[in-house]
Amino acid sequence: MQERRWVPAGPLDVGLALSPHRRGSGDPTWHRTPDGSVWRTSRTPDGPGTLRVSVKDGAVLGQAWGAGAGWLLEMLPAWLGADDDLAGFEAGHEVLAEAARRHAGLRIGRTARVMEALVPAVLEQKVVGREAWRAWRWLLHRYGEPAPGPAPEGMRVVPEAEVWRQIPAWHWHRAGAEAVRARTIATAAWHAAKLEAAATTAELDRLLRALPGVGVWTSAEVRQRAFGDPDAVSVGDFHLAKIVGYALTGQKTDDPGMLRLLEPYRGHRHRAALLITLTGVRPPARGPRMAARDYRSF
């Protein structure tokens, strides 16, 4: 085990900073224990690693195991949003101002791990969350490796890019991912080295959207997590535009309407949208929910 103690410069909610990387309640790469510690696994440039993050007396304690332990501890502040710059963000709406006050510890971290953000984002395309998360769990338990160290039972490390390329069609089917999403992930895996080497969020956006099957929404979801991009708003999300519109105007809106409402926060549009989702304000449900579609039955 290796350890690092880090004192953040301002308010920090560790659980909130790490929660975007959790893909459902049974995510094999993310676990929160009753003592409040958050466990995360990652395939770092140095190999697999497990990270435990806890808070005591205002300081963050990171404990790590595996070949990637040193890299994880070096990246710990970045993962928790130490590089997140709030300059230029002003909550000009009362809903945003109240959310910013309630969640003063919100920080947008960056993992610098593109494939770990891309694969689950692709799995979440055009399906309800629980279907995507089930596929993620199945694939990780089948192709991931056990988390190093004393990680909670069942935790896994995401496989290498080469493994994603070699998953047979029948296992994608068993996971519940149809051929389109499977091809998108496999194609991205062929270009993993180039994606991981992207120097800026703009460059990563260009590379991602050049891949068949990756559009605006998927690119934003990846850049939010891998690069900590506070402006990468998830255009195309099934719910987000309606939530933002209702919270800021009392009326649901579409993506163009959401972008108009978020324009005053350019540079921080994802931050603004994220704060709005944290309020819990939702438009009344007046129509059928998006139906779950189990591709294993096809």
* Rg, nearest Å: 19 Å
Order of the strands making up the biggest sheet: 1-5-4-3-2
Please, what is the average pLDDT? 95
Give me the count of strands. 7
Outline, from the CA principal axes? Answer: globular
Beta-strand residue fraction: 5-15%
Structural class computed from helices and strand pairing: alpha+beta
Range of helix content: 40-55%
Span of the ends, CA to CA: 46 Å
Helical run tally: 14
Question: Main β-sheet: number of strands, strand sense, barrel status?
Answer: 5 strands, antiparallel
Low-confidence parts lasting 5 or more residues at pLDDT below 50?
none
Which architecture of the domain at 2-89 would the CATH scheme give at its second level? 2-Layer Sandwich
CATH T-level fold name of the domain at 2-89? Alpha-D-Glucose-1,6-Bisphosphate, Chain A, domain 4
Protein name: 3-methyladenine DNA glycosylase/8-oxoguanine DNA glycosylase
GO cellular component, one term: cytoplasm
GO molecular function: alkylated DNA binding; DNA-3-methyladenine glycosylase activity; DNA-7-methylguanine glycosylase activity
Keywords: DNA damage, DNA repair
Please describe what this structure looks like.
This protein is α+β, with helices and mostly antiparallel strands and 298 residues long. Helix 4 runs antiparallel to helix 11. Helices cover 43% and strands 12% of the residues.
In summary, what is this structure?
This is 3-methyladenine DNA glycosylase/8-oxoguanine DNA glycosylase. By secondary structure, the protein is of the alpha+beta class.
